[in-house]
Amino acid sequence: MGKVIIDGAIVDNQWQRLEGDALEAELPGGKIIVPLAYWQAHRDALLTRGDVAVWLAPGEEPKDLEDDLAALPLVAIHFPAFKDGRGYSYARELRTRYNFKGEVRATGDVLRDQLFYMTRCGFNAFEVREDRSIEEALEGLKDFSVTYQGDVNEPRPLYRRG
Amino acid sequence: MYVYQEYDQRLLEERVAQYRDQTRRFLANELSEDEFLALRLQNGLYIQRYAPMLRISVPYGLLASRQLRRLAHIVRTYDKGFCHVSTRQNIQLNWPSVEEVPDILAELADVQMHAIQTSGNCIRNITTDEFAGVNPKEIEDPRPWCEIIRQWSTFNPEFAYLPRKFKIAVNAVPDADPALIGVHDIGVQLVHGADGETGFQVWAGGGLGRTPMTGAVIGEFVPWQDLLAYLESILRVYNKYGNRDNKYKARIKILVKALGAEKYRELVEQEFAELKGGEMTLTAEEVARIKGCFTAPDYQSADTAALDAKLAEDKAFSRWFHTNTRAHKQAGYRAVTLTLKRTGRVPGDISDEQLEAVADLADQYSFGELRNSHQQNMVLSDVAANDLYDLWKALDALGFATPNLGLLTDIVACPGGDLCALANAKSIPIAESIQRRFDDVDYVHDLGPLDLNISGCMNACGHHHIGHIGILGVDKKGKEFYQVTLGGRGDKLSRVGEKMGPSFESEEITDVVEKIIKLYVEKRLENEPFIDTYERIGMDPFKERIYG
Fold first, then answer.
1. Which fold has domain B6-110?
2. Does domain B142-293 have CATH number 3.30.413.10?
3. What Cα–Cα distance (Å) separates residue B128 from each residue in B56, B169, B261, B371, B378?
4. CA distance A86 to B241
């Protein structure tokens, strides 16, 4: 089992993200994260099973999960490429529009130099790309002590913080 | 200008440390080319034809003399002794080394400068009228609003990886567009509501580049308190729905065009409904704090007797006065443009020694400040009338008093194929060839206002679409050709020029420009500027003359 950063600490990754062929066979045991389409097709069975979360690809918005969020412990937002920034808006929407309190996890091309932005948009968990050091990536959360804008963790912009 | 607080300075220093570490990791092969590309671009660093290019941010074009001196030191130490004023009011270095960029950033941070978001798919430098704050036609000073937008856009976590670059400009002049808001991703027009309160008409979806178009009004009247919430709403819609498959279709203009302004507005309003009245709402205290950084300097007397005498006796001075200086809000003061367009000089280039000389002149004559203009010139905005003659002498000695502001030889040109890796063709030799052809100052003055813009490729850094005469470098089977557009304008409301026809070889282009000018002279009515003649007679006579 790999490692993941959750709430600023490196811990064992309890969740397995599934895609492609892994969804054709019988699902593995343990905690799994399934694609949105799979979730929508097997919603009732998955809810009965428990220990299931959903991941969103670029183009799949939190709105597509709106009615299910209360039942989900975790929503993952997948970054096939770190330069595709749609996931930043999705995370923010999960937190501020839908008031989602569960884990919001970044998966895929997740790298140190984007973590600070991601955490401000509402991600609290990061599966750092496997070929990179997760310990070093953790440092990325500390890049800045100053932020002008409000964000998910501190809604007040600098000029309202007093 | 905006005065940094402790936190603004700390942010810059943390940025330098962050970028230094990113550079270190890249050089140690811990970051791939592609990963570093996005990071260095967000720091204004391009890898160019011969060397990297570093674009230094100059927020809304405003520079203090100590910053000019630091730039002089930087170009002398880390570059070849000159830099370049860009069409978005920034400063570009053409020969820094990748390894030394962190040191350059540290030098810049000392004087409250940086290269944050000067490139890459993020929100770029906020630009405005180079005469902001002294323009008698503006309804209020746009610079505080530029600064408010700058802070909101700086390291905005949600909008660092947009589909494409994003440019915002602010204009406070009614019935004219000195900031070119019509051709920006977002244009912000200051307006006063019925009760006299400041608000903004917000445009979106303008842009030059491959598919030039003017924007559409998305927000008819946004109260000042809601400015940032409204901008954020526009950006969020773009971030979610902008095209990410094809970079040539990724600008917001394509999305606005595809959805239609009405639909785009509807999506923005949905976002805005959630943000309006929330924490992003601007406070009167914050606006007052920022406005407090842009108060008028300590103007002295309005005496113009010495000026009037010199104007009467010195014809060359008088010509410069009428061409290169303009009216000011404050009686007895003028705004002076330093034309960086002398024939034989790369448009917009300035050397280390000249930067220092200009810094001294700013201290002596203009309260220690200077502005870059989007026409690649510089402005001393607050010069007392009776100092103008001495200033003119000093500028003339520096080669910055060529009396051609707004005239044919005040050519705007990108660095082009001599330096830029993106260019299809050279721009600088074309500019020089045209300047040499039109070397009769009296004739150029007689031609009147004329914007000639040259871009070396369709990225349009030379803003050729909005030149009255626009020249675009294109590649045809490995050879440099030039396409001509007529009728663009960036003076009143921005408009994109019309293609004249097949392109020309580099040896032909100056002749073509001369033929266009000759036809204009034949056809013009008394005192009719080129653009008005063009709009009256249309493209056909020009086509006939050139291709017939």
1. Alpha-Beta Plaits (3.30.70)
2. yes
3. 17, 6, 24, 10, 14
4. 8
Q: Which two tokens stand for residue B441?
A: 């100052």
pLDDT digits (tens, 9 = 90+) for B402-442: 999 999 999 999 988 888 888 899 999 999 999 999 999 99
Interchain proximity B239–A111, CB inside 8 Å = no
| Per-domain boundaries in chain A | 3-20+32-152
**Chain B: residue whose CA lies nearest to A146:** B11
The minimal CB distance from A121 to the residues B39, B154, B157 is found for B157
Q: Is the dihedral of CA B492, B496, B500, B506 positive or negative?
A: positive
Which residues on chain A are in Cβ contact (under 8 Å) with B280?
A: 150, 157
Q: Coil, strand, or helix at residue A152? A: coil
Residues from chain A that touch B15, judged by Cβ atoms under 8 A, are 144
CA angle B262, B265, B267 (to 5 degrees): 115
Q: Cα(B417)–Cα(B455) distance, rounded to whole angstroms?
A: 10
Cα separation of B128 and B202, whole Å? 14
Confidence at residue A1, expressed as pLDDT on a 0 to 100 scale: 66
pTM of the model: 0.96
Cβ separation B239–A156 shorter than 8 A: no
Q: Which residues of chain A lie closer than 8 angstroms to B271, CB-CB?
A: none
For chain A, the farthest-separated pair of C-alpha atoms sits apart, in whole angstroms, at: 56
CATH placement of domain A3-20+32-152: 3.20.20.70
Pair of tokens at residue B164: 């494409």
- DSSP state, B412? E
Task: Please answer whether residues B432 and B446 qualify as being in contact, where contact means their C-beta atoms are separated by less than 8 angstroms.
Answer: no
- The residues that bridge with A3 in the sheet, in sequence order, are A12
Q: Please provide the average confidence, as pLDDT, over all residues in chain B.
A: 95
What is the predicted ipTM?
Answer: 0.97
Nearest to B150 by CA among B228, B222, B95, B93: B228
pLDDT at B528 over 90: yes
Which of A113, A114, A117, A152 is the best substitution to test chain B (most B C-beta atoms within 10 A)?
A113
- Give the per-residue pLDDT at A50: 84
pLDDT value of position A25 = 85
Closest-CA residue of B relative to A141 is B18
* DSSP state string for B97-149: -GGGHHHHHHHHHHTT-B-TTSSSSSB---EE-TTTTT-TT-SS-SHHHHHHH
- pLDDT-wise least confident of A127-141, B401-415, B417-431, B531-545: B417-431
The position carrying tokens 């097709």 is: A41
Whether B412-547 and B142-293 are alike in CATH topology: the answer is yes
Give the chain A residue nearest B154 (alpha carbons): A148
Does residue B258 register a pLDDT over 90?
A: yes
Q: Which of residues 61-100 of A touch B (CB under 8 A)?
A: 61, 82-86, 88-90, 92, 96-97
CA–CA separation, B133 vs B335, rounded Å? Answer: 11
